[in-house]
Recover the amino acids of this structure.
């Protein structure tokens, strides 16, 4: 079952800062929902272990991620495949691009394509699609917070 997820995130940081964060395994590990391990195996390859719950199915995926079509600091394609045992598999990729929005802000846009199979595909396209959109939104929101250091919800003092 294939799906497409697209989105945009405005990040209050220069393009170069955002680009560096997109290539930093520690930043990515902190932002990928359910990521337990992320190891950089080359300048363009990572190995990951991610645990997710989609509907009634809990799965631990292990897989590889590769960066291609690199155009620093403006764009790249990230693609990967993970196997989740009896839960099935997930594979896909995303085209990520960065555009300057003034000297200290960046517009990050992404267009992701994913394909799932096995037990997960039997859950139904609506559940898979909504969960995938939620996970992508959570990643980019967490990524934005990590890059900007803007965690206003926790930083605000309670009002008297």
């Amino acid at each position: 079952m294939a799906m497409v997820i697209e989105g945009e995130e405005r990040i209050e940081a220069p393009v170069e800062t955002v680009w560096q964060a997109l290539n930093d395994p520690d930043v990515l590990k902190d932002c990928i929902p359910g990521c337990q391990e992320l190891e950089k195996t080359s300048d363009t390859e990572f190995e990951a272990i991610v645990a997710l719950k989609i509907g009634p199915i809990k799965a631990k995926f292990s897989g590889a991620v590769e960066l291609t079509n690199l155009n620093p600091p403006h764009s790249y394609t990230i693609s990967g495949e993970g196997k989740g045992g009896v839960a099935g598999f997930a594979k896909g990729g995303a085209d990520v691009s960065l555009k300057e929005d003034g000297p200290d802000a960046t517009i990050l846009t992404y267009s992701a394509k994913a394909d799932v199979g096995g037990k997960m595909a039997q859950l139904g396209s609506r559940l898979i699609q909504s969960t995938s959109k939620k996970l992508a939104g959570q990643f980019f929101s967490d990524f934005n917070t990590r890059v900007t250091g803007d965690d206003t919800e926790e930083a605000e003092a309670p009002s008297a």
